[in-house]
Amino acid sequence: NPGWNHLAWAYNLATPVAYLYINGADAEVAGSTETDDTIDYTVTNHGIGGRPDVAGSLLNADLADVLIAFGEFFDISNSANLLKLRSAAGKPLNLGANGATPSGSQPIMFFRRAPGAAASTFATNLGGGGDFTITGALTNATTSPSD
Questions:
Q1: How far is the C-alpha of 94 from the C-alpha of 122, rounded, in Å?
Q2: Are 59 and 50 in contact (CB under 8 A)?
Q3: For the chain, what percent of residues have pLDDT higher than 90?
């Protein structure tokens, strides 16, 4: 789909339940099955947009806000909760200085570039975890999801 898209994914494997919404519409594959399982979130290295150790895996796309809250389930099947992540018109919302506005809890990862800031500031984690290291080059998008 050309242009900006909003993706929201939430899961709780202890239940197990998972939701995927793209542009406000339920996009979970019919008949998909979640498994009661445990994910190890204690690994020390995480990546957004690919793995620098895997050739050709780096994302070539524009990203706006990225919010990741390991171990916190935010039920996006509740339309009021989904509207805390995007407006009814599909535009981005202010998720707060540290990403806590939607759920009330600061996520482990929250990345955004302030308008007018250098693209490299996107690697500054405004969430509770550490900053990321840029592999490759970041450039500012020529458009905005707010357009």
A1: 16
A2: yes
A3: 49
Burial status of residue 85 (CB atoms within 10 A of its CB: 0-12, 13-18, 19 or more): buried
Bridge partner list, 112: none
| Cα 63 to Cα 140: distance, rounded to the nearest angstrom | 9
Query: Quick check: 54 pLDDT over 90?
Result: no
Whether the model clears a pTM of 0.70, i.e. scores above it, the answer is: yes
Tokens read off for 7: 């993706």
Phi, then psi, of 79 in degrees rounded to 5? -60, -30
Tell me how far apart the alpha carbons of residues 41 and 28 are, in angstroms, rounded to a whole number.
Answer: 23
pLDDT of residue 61: 87
Indicate the average pLDDT of the chain.
89
Hey, what are 73's tokens? 């389930």
Q: Is the dihedral of CA 108, 19, 112, 45 positive or negative?
A: positive
Buried b (16+ CB within 10 A) or exposed e, 96-121: eeebbebbeebbbbbbbbeeeeeeee
The tokens for 52 are: 């620098």
Element (DSSP H or E) covering residue 80: helix 79-82
CA Rg value for the chain:
16
